[in-house]
């Protein structure tokens, strides 16, 4: 199983933006020494109290230049906000800089604030996403091509460089809504799924993905990576207490941001309930906080029930956990949990 660390390049109230960059780059260097397989980068815009990670491809190139074994992936590039031709060029460039250690993770994001800031209607996000992906796949075939679509038009262009990995970097799509699973399955790409959805529902949706994938001529079952917040400590009490405030902050922050742009009153009410979810319920359904034995047991359940091939671990869920505690948790994870899955 592939073990990756997810990072937001968080900003806390007591740190400058420069310090946020320094701390996150330091974490990446440490987790490579600890033996983690990969690091995964988010994409955030217009949130100065949360993150400085607005340009994941630039950060990915910096990480690639600073590391030698760690794979660097995007989780995810918000594809509808970009010019796909430029993304094809830059992602291929990172692939060369990393000498093939790059993973191209893409999605739409549920934060409509980003779309408003870039003056792109969120209603166009799905159409823009799939057309942008089509353009990138054409660009990575090599040679000149043209494209005339609903959102993008190009005439006789040729992308340079072509990717280092052939035919192109692993391209993984974040999926959440039920109807997206079979659509992505037909394309054959690996996927991200989130632990915010329970195992029984994920099993049903993965069946849709895998069936569609198989019917389209791709091998069963396809690579599935689970994204989940994780924290490991010597005792259950400590593993639950250390990240508590940060986890609650993450839930409340997400609900507050989404409420501002919810499409319906029903959606507003659901988000309000989410903002007030008891911590005990967060522990049961949304996160993986525990001792090495407890985290191992949870991971075995996800592996056996969902047939996942990897995990992307949010090691600082909410971004408020001090750096020394985050790294102590990661060290305990790499020393006591990861070896059980290798």
From TrEMBL:
Pfam families in the record: Bac_luciferase
Listed transmembrane segments: none
Keyword annotations: Monooxygenase, Oxidoreductase
Residue span(s) of domain Luciferase-like: 1-304
This protein's GO CC annotations: cytosol
Keyword Disulfide bond: no
GO molecular function, one term: oxidoreductase activity, acting on paired donors, with incorporation or reduction of molecular oxygen
InterPro entries, A to Z: Bact_Lucif_Oxidored, Luciferase-like_dom, Luciferase-like_sf
PANTHER family listed in its UniProt record: BLR5498 PROTEIN, LUCIFERASE-LIKE MONOOXYGENASE
Protein name in the entry: Uncharacterized protein y4wF
Organism: Geodia barretti (Barrett's horny sponge)
Taxonomic path: Eukaryota, Metazoa, Porifera, Demospongiae, Heteroscleromorpha
């Amino acid at each position: 199983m592939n073990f990756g660390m997810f990072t937001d390049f968080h900003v806390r109230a007591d740190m400058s933006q420069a310090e946020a960059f320094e701390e996150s780059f330091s974490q990446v260097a440490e987790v490579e020494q600890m033996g983690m397989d990969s690091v995964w980068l988010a994409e955030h815009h217009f949130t100065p109290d949360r993150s400085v990670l607005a340009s994941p491809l630039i950060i990915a190139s910096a990480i690639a230049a600073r590391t030698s074994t760690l794979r660097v992936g995007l989780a995810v590039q918000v594809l509808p906000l970009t010019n796909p031709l430029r993304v094809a060029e830059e992602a291929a460039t990172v692939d060369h800089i990393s000498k093939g250690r790059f993973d191209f993770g893409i999605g739409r994001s549920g934060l409509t604030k980003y779309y408003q800031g870039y003056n792109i209607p969120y209603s166009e996000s799905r159409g823009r996403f799939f057309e942008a992906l089509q353009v990138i796949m054409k660009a990575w075939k090599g040679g000149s091509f043209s494209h005339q679509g609903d959102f993008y038009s190009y005439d006789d262009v040729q992308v340079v460089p072509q990717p280092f990995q052939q035919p192109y970097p692993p391209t993984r799509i974040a999926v959440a809504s039920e109807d997206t699973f079979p659509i992505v399955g037909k394309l054959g790409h690996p996927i991200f799924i989130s632990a915010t959805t329970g195992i029984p529902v994920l099993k049903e949706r993965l069946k849709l993905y895998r069936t569609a994938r198989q019917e389209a001529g791709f091998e069963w079952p396809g690579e599935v990576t689970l994204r989940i917040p994780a924290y490991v400590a010597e005792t259950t009490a400590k593993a639950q207490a250390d990240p508590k405030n940060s986890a609650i902050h993450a839930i409340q922050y997400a609900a507050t941001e989404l409420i501002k742009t919810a499409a319906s009153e029903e959606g507003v009410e659901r988000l309000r309930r989410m903002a007030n979810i008891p911590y005990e319920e967060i522990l049961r359904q949304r996160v993986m906080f525990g001792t090495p034995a407890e985290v191992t047991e949870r991971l075995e359940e996800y592996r056996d029930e969902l047939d996942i091939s990897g995990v992307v671990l949010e090691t600082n869920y909410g971004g408020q956990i001090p750096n020394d505690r985050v790294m102590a948790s990661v060290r305990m994870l790499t020393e006591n949990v990861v070896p059980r899955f290798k």
